[in-house]
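Data availability excerpt. The first of two example chains:
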Amino acid sequence: MDLEFLEKQVKKTLTNMDANRLTISEKLLFRSKPSSKSKKELKDTIMKALPLKLMMYHDKYVDKSGLNKLKSIQEYQGFKYEKINEFMRTGKISFSLNVSDRLYLKKSNITSDSNLMKYTNKTKQDIDKSFTMNIEKNKKSMDELTNTITNIKSTIMNAPRFKRNFYVYRGEENYDTIFALNEKDSSLRNNQKHKLRQINMKEGSTYNSKGFNSFSMAPWIASRFSGKNPCCIYRLRIDPQTPVLVLPWKTSGVFEGEFEVLLPPAKFKVIKVRSINSDENPQISIKVYDIEFVKVLVST
């Protein structure tokens, strides 16, 4: 990967973006009111704000980190991130249908056997047999996950630090908060429990995040993840003291182009709360939490 390749990818993304989403991205980047810039000027402004050169340094670092660590990063960038974070938050992992599959079914209101079969290739009876394995019963599986988590943590903590500050963003849907409050399936509810931090959070509030913390350097990605029923967007400043890993642009190929960065389990503090209009629906207001990294959480 080189700088020219990255610039082409970003320009392609920005060219296909509508003016409203560009304006939202500008407001997130600079904490300002919408400007009267043209679409071209907005694209140029956003382009300059993205630390593309920094992505290249970490891409080379991951390549040289060794096969085991590279494999762990690839697993996280694939579909294993849900299982890894579920284990880190709850000490358990769900089998049969994984958490993301079951959340999708809930969101899409897929309840009939025919729809279940079409999406999962399993009957409702099969799905009802889903169970949670704990550490004592399945030590081998847990050891493998623990090893993956250790590799990822080590890769993050030893990654080259950046000399300049930049911002990263995370968008979350309101659905997740409602789900964490009302879901009857305890394994699903517990895996989303960390989203309850969104309730009554204000300036000065702190919260602990026990899983890996995924953000994007691209504000439009966070805006997209906040969905049509948005809860909020987190805006975090990365400074030279913040442990962070810029994930390779393409490893497994599953989430290529999300400008994803990963932080270890950490404590964060809310330093400012504001609101912007959703790019999905300008009539909807989204809370923006400006947060700062406090410290790495030590595993128990």
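And the second chain:
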Amino acid sequence: MTNSDQNLVEVANFRTKVEAETAAGLLLAEDIPYLIQSREGAQLGPGPAGSSIMVRAEDAERARQVLTDAGALGGES
């Protein structure tokens, strides 16, 4: 993905960037472009940390299905 990509949507949220990167490998195998948006290291106090996988809106349904079929979502999206 490039910085000019627009209409990105979140398809999954993970506790750590490593978990997000592992799940993103499933999307890579299916040729679905993605962006990982990480909040790790940006926290100064209590609050939600973690990482999200973002994809183009037109790829969102397929991306969610790939992650669901692989058991990577665990009920969160």
